[in-house]
Amino acid sequence: MKYQNTLSFAQTLDEADPLHGWRKEFYFPQHKGANALYFTGNSLGLQPKRARVYVEEEMQKWEEFAVEGHFLPKKNPWLKFHEASKPSLAGVLGALPLEVVAMNNLTVNLHLLMVSFYQPTAQRFKIICEAGAFPSDQYMFESQFKFHGLDPEEALIEVAPRDGENTLRTEDIIETIEKHGKELTLVLFGGVQYYTGQWFDMESITQAGHKVGAYVGFDLAHAAGNVPVQLHDWDVDFATWCSYKYLNSGPGNVSGIFVHERHAHNDSLPRFAGWWGHNEKERFLMKKGFQPMPGADGWQLSNGNIISTAAHLASLEIFDEVGMPAIREKSLQLTGYLEFIIQELSGDRGLFEIITPSDPSQRGAQLSIFFHKNGKSLFDHLIANGVIGDWREPNVIRIAPAPLYNSFEDVYQFGQILSEAIKQQG
Fold first, then answer.
1. Is the pTM here over 0.90, yes or no?
2. Cis (ω within 30 of 0) for the bond into 394?
3. CA 93 – CA 97 distance, rounded (Å)
4. Which of 244, 354, 373, 375 has the greatest count of CB atoms below 10 A from its CB?
5. How do the domains of the chain map onto residue ranges?
6. Please, are residues 398 and 390 in contact by the beta-carbon 8 Å criterion?
7. At what angle do helices 51-65 and 306-322 cross, to 10 degrees?
8. Are 424 and 381 in contact (CB under 8 A)?
9. Which CATH architecture has domain 7-48+324-425?
10. Cα(381)–Cα(265) distance, integer angstroms
11. Count of beta carbons in the 10 Å neighbourhood of residue 3
12. Residue 223, CB half-sphere, CA atoms under 13 Å: how many?
């Protein structure tokens, strides 16, 4: 598609966009009496209007049934509440319902999954990840190594971009896996890198890790609901994500895990157990002796937070109705238009550059703009004029046009405001 930096062109794209009507399903922050230009769905998605209805339904159950809400309501009794999201999560993540469950928060889930999939020995004790992983992942790695009596400096291998490059090459990741194969027990990458927005070749990474005998897992915080992943077909061992970014489920809301079907009945995998992961047929017999439920359910610890998970179900319903293929199709066009606008503004002046891969197959709905000067003051101008983006030290603005609620006109208006900011900076 040949893009144009005009209001009429952006509006024409919106008129032809089959997802444009979904924008009305969300609440926008306001700026001077109008919708703000919200491009931070990679940090916190907007509130679906139906979320309040879903939450109120559970409040009504609590009011009407009290503890019997676990059993009596015909729709989603609390005892089975964790099952309600399984089909939707399976669709978003390319998984089987058996392989997914909503539970806990992301870093908690990473630690729980490490119990099962990080089993260091004297020979195999190393982990490979991307350099500059999100701090929670870095802290998780550090504490896990220390828990096992290992030196993080020796046990963690971080794959960094080549000199002068901003993103990783898949061949460098695979070469690193092969080089350390005999010492390697786990490969754990982000699905989409939070800072650069690079979508890693998860299938190739998984194949390379398995070839040397290592487990492979992914932190999908910036991938779930953003890019079309196929965890089951790609043979990924495990994954976890958060639901409050592209999945629009509310601040700090429930995470979830994926554990591949081939591990579904492996009771010998070590894990930290809780009663909600125990054989549900015997859960209330209160007996000793943990018997894990098949699949991802066997990693649950406690009964879920019903009220907040209701908002999660409201958002997932939208993903069911729209579908990841349609979301991805618009994402490619919308992010492509944003890329065009940014490149036109920078031109030959070299004011800034996009450090997210230019290949659409290596990115989702985020472009990270590296500013060579005046980045923070330009960002402040954007905020003051109703653009909600994300500043990351030392000099990057992340702009994430979410296909479910952002429009092409949003992207055009962003370009106009950034252009004005550049003129004021001289």
1. yes
2. yes
3. 10
4. 244
5. 7-48+324-425, 55-321
6. yes
7. 140
8. yes
9. Alpha-Beta Complex (3.90)
10. 55
11. 20
12. 27
